[in-house]
Design a protein that fits this description.
Blueprint lengths: L6 H9 L6 E6 L2 H12 L4 H7 E5 L5 H8 L9 E6 L6 H5 L2 H4 L6 E8 L8 H7 L3 E4 L8 H11 L3 E2 L1 H11 L3 H14 L5 E2 L1 H7 L8 H9 L3 H13 L6 H19 L6 H8 L8 H9 L2 H18 L8 H14 L7
Parallel strand pairs: 1-4, 1-5, 2-3, 3-4, 6-7
Length: 344
């Protein structure tokens, strides 16, 4: 196994019981790390855990105590598992104190170092881990451009299929919250037969996102300048605030207009060229952007982006006491009325 691995590769290697002596799990996204820690704990049977599983918390232990546990031999088990949690809360001296062991580990021990929410602070730790035959996994937050590919991969992993509109609906609803994303897809996997297609109707029935009144449809209505539909959708949002927070709406609107501005100035205006500039994986992601390019000029886009920024601040209570859905109504009016007059 390589000295750095991605989530799926690491997950498959654990399932196949192909272990290395040291694992470093660190980074901003907690969901991946929590999932892997559960898998490492389950390497051992319940009977084996009594004598062969050690859980340490970085602030409550010392490097010497961890190393002492790692140097022990398993009892009635092939492997000893030592997990050190919450390393992000400790200082660099704690991690540096483990370096002698990391570069020369005990082969019958699996040491897992977890730094949830941040990269480890120790110097040259990844080099020491590589020297000792271990691997490092950096758990990164999903970016806006990686949410849809992550959904597609998970749907495929669960033996299901998904329509492009359904993919966009889930992406807009869940955003980059991995825990929610996995929960929603897992819910559908339990309900639907293998090989089923995830349609907007399936999502509406089982997740609670309206197939007609959602951020996906709002973005499309605004892209094609369908004012009546846009206002109707916002009226629905107002009546269902729990499932339609304005902070999510402002994000998808900002993405529409900022991406359209990027597409305007792409040197290559072909689908391939615009996808490359925007980091998109599918031509379907260009649909609303191409519609918006027909209906909004660059200076209008700049004015609209400025208004979305103001809306985002005011909807959070900065300089305004208006209801957030009243503000959203006003934002849509400004979008449709934008003249492209921007004060620089």
């Amino acid at each position: 196994m390589a000295d750095t691995v991605d989530f799926n590769t690491l997950k498959r290697s654990i399932q196949a019981k192909k272990f290395v002596p040291v694992y470093l799990l660190h980074g901003e996204e907690g969901y991946y790390i929590d999932t892997l820690l559960e898998m490492f704990e389950d390497i051992l049977t319940d009977e084996e855990k009594d004598f062969n599983l050690y859980n340490f918390y970085a602030l409550d232990t010392t490097p010497d105590a961890v190393i002492e546990a790692c140097r022990r031999y398993p009892m009635m088990s092939e492997k000893l598992v030592v997990i050190v949690r919450e390393v992000q809360a400790a200082n660099a001296n704690f991690v540096n104190g483990l370096k002698p062991y990391l570069s020369d580990p005990t082969l019958s021990t699996i040491l897992v170092i977890s730094s949830r929410g941040a990269l480890v602070k120790g110097k040259d730790i990844t080099t020491a881990i590589k020297t000792g035959g271990g691997v490092t996994f950096e758990s990164k937050k999903l970016t806006a451009s990686s949410v849809e590919p992550a959904i597609s991969n998970l749907v495929k992993e669960k033996g299901l299929n998904i329509e492009p509109k359904s993919l966009k609906m889930i992406a807009d609803y869940v955003g980059s919250d991995l825990s929610r994303l996995y929960n929603e897809i897992n819910k559908l996997a339990l309900i639907l037969p293998a090989g089923s297609m995830i349609t907007p109707e399936v999502i509406e029935r089982n997740i609670g996102i309206s197939k007609d009144y959602n951020n996906f449809e709002l973005v499309h209505a605004i892209a094609v300048r369908d004012f009546v539909k846009a206002v109707t959708i916002i009226k629905y949002f107002r009546s269902n605030p729990k499932n339609n927070p304005t902070v999510l709406t402002s994000t998808v609107l900002f993405n529409l207009f900022s991406n359209t501005l990027v597409a305007y100035y792409a040197k290559d205006k072909s689908d391939r060229g615009m996808m490359a500039d925007l980091g998109f994986k599918s031509p379907y992601q260009l649909k609303d952007i191409k519609d918006a390019m027909k209906n909004y000029r660059p200076w209008q886009l700049i004015e609209i982006i400025s208004e979305i920024r103001k809306f985002d601040a005011m909807s959070k209570g900065v300089g305004s006491r208006f209801d957030q859905y009243d503000l959203l109504d006003m934002l849509v009016m400004k979008i449709f009325d934008a003249k492209g007059q921007v004060k620089l």
